[in-house]
Amino acid sequence: MTSKLPNTTTSIFSVMSKLASDHNAINLAQGFPGFESDPVLIDLVNKAMKDGYNQYAPMPGDKKLREVISKKIESLYYKKYNADREITITAGATQAIFTAIAATIHKDDEVIIFTPAYDCYKPSVELFGGKTVEIQLQVPDYKPDWKKVTEKVTEKTKMIIINMPHNPTGMLFSEDDMLQLQKLAEEHDLLVLSDEVYEHIVFDGEEHQSAAKFPQLAKRSFITASFGKTFHNTGWKMGYCVAPEYLMKEFQKVHQFNVFSVNHPIQKALATYLQDEENYLSLPSFYQQKRDYFLELIKDSRFKFTPSNGTYFQLLDFSKISEERDIDFADRLTREHKIATIPTSVFNENNEDFKQIRVCFAKTDSELKKAAAILNSI
């Protein structure tokens, strides 16, 4: 058999998490919170199960949940999405991303991605015969150069994928970035896939610049989001996608034959839980406290860093510590020092190595303190 993804190997997240388990290391590698979901939300799921919501949900998702999402987006970004025709609940954001690509990308279409890039983008495009065109973001600020982006656009370019707040760098797109993206997409009739799973985790008083805030951009964009990232329950694999009706029609054609519908009692619970806005509006201060606590603990270490602007990830520069490739350095940290991190070169064009590792600070304070003690000893 000929593989459809001959160059795809096991995800670095799986590799490093297994290594962490094998060596009994603190796992700051995989991006999952190290604390429990709100007991209120757990009780709401339990109640929905007891109330009998244990069969298939409607294909696009529970109607009340779609209505609450519509209100949330309108409140935050001043854009009204039709709950009946422009919102679909998905099995996590990765399924939403895959489905948007499956619905729109044909053989030989080109899709621009910014590297370092989340590892599901490229293989998803390649599965449908498309080609990714990579634009490498550069240290230290990882900001896009829109002149370079424009130069990469050809008659075959179909879509641009953006991710903000950006994983793994913690970079935020500015309002100017989004306006330049909007102009470029309009001029070249491009679709945009905006991966916004960390939309509620933005620091230092900055604002998340959702594609929904920019009218002409919203008209040609899929926006994907994650309840798992937002509410500390990544194992539930719950997310959603919003898009204008003409795009959502194509999205749902794939969605109905992929998963059809997703976890019904969790949708019912989220429909209630989301009505209290504080459940997501409190996240910036909650995670900024985690970031600041962790960085204060390691401020005298040999690692260099610029505080993350968003997400619950922090890049650490180890260039003053070792000349090893980041993959080898991260491997050694796990085996010898019992702390697992993610080497970032695996997300870069041609595996460019900036001597940086990514750590997740969505952990308990006690775990962050233990991790910091290890990092300070290196």
Automatic annotation (TrEMBL):
Its cofactor is pyridoxal 5'-phosphate. GO terms for molecular function: kynurenine-oxoglutarate transaminase activity; pyridoxal phosphate binding. Keywords: Aminotransferase, Pyridoxal phosphate, Transferase. The keyword Membrane does not apply. One of its GO terms (cellular component) is cytoplasm. The keyword Transferase applies. InterPro entries: Aminotransferase_I/II_large, Kynurenine-oxoglutarate_AT, PyrdxlP-dep_Trfase, PyrdxlP-dep_Trfase_major, PyrdxlP-dep_Trfase_small. Residues 25-373 form the Aminotransferase class I/classII large domain. Signal peptide: none annotated. Gene3D superfamilies: Aspartate Aminotransferase, domain 1 (3.90.1150.10), Type I PLP-dependent aspartate aminotransferase-like (Major domain) (3.40.640.10). It comes from the Bacteria. Belongs to the class-I pyridoxal-phosphate-dependent aminotransferase family. This is Aminotransferase class I/II-fold pyridoxal phosphate-dependent enzyme. The lineage of its organism: Bacteria, Pseudomonadati, Bacteroidota, Flavobacteriia, Flavobacteriales.
